[in-house]
Model the fold of this input.
Amino acid sequence: MKKSILATFVFFAFLAVSHAQESVPFKMSAKPTITLFSNFKTGIADPNNKIGFNLERVYLGTSFVLSENLSGRVRFDIGDPKVPGSDLEMVAYVKNAEIKWQAGNVTFNAGMISTIQFAVQEKFWGYRYLLKSFQDEYKFGSSADLGIAASYKISDLITIDATVINGEGYKKVNKDDALRYGGGVLISPSEWILLRAYYDRNDVATGAIGATQENVGLFAGISLQNITLGAEYNTLYNVDRTRGNHQYGYSVYSTVVLPKQFQLYGRWDYLFSSNEYNLAKDGQLGVLGVQYSINKYVQLSPNLRIWQSAEGGAAKLCGLVNLQVNF
Done:
């Protein structure tokens, strides 16, 4: 009898708790985000021999959750506009203003979105605060743009994605009637191997003279317990829709996890162009450094960089100490 009463009590208590959980409405939430990139730089073998402290970039934003499937973020990018002859030191841009809908294995983003062009490579490289990934560093594409993107995880092995964006990036927003659209596939045959292939094209605007710009990116990454190794090959055909102006490049990078929150990393880039049309900017870059994680919010990294221009001459060597604060 006592067991029957106890079982009845437990049953009705379970029903009451379940009903209470169902009746509680979803609570929206938001949190601020702040990221800071700074460094100290000195030329070691550089004719310009610039030395000093630099504030490279500040991101200020808010991420929010509107429902179980709907979230988003707004983020401002404050950095050097790099306009020759300008007195402007820092300018603010809207880097992200996007809504994200996710249900199961399907994800959809719209607005001023982070592009998918080199997102996998950037995450695998892991040191965005001291150097952009190859396609971002050499202007093969922008890290954010107005448009839409979707991805679908078919299985643990394959994820596919597609994007349609304006093609001008987040600083110019929209200056013509042409779109940049493409897609990619991410293959993970095991927990320690990543393979990525991506293609996009930017057609010629109505009434304009030129050729369709096309971009191809191939990436392979190996991630073991204490070491990662990534390699990518990139091509950009008809740069800025100028027929015959092509760019090519390789990037190889690795990280070795050391004791006491230290990491040793290295990277080598090689950028070259067809008919040497971009000779002044072509060349090879080498980076070697150590990162120390003070805590999960702050990383400090002394590193050396060497640049050898395709035009020849002496290589430029400089030393930096980079700082990231992210919370």
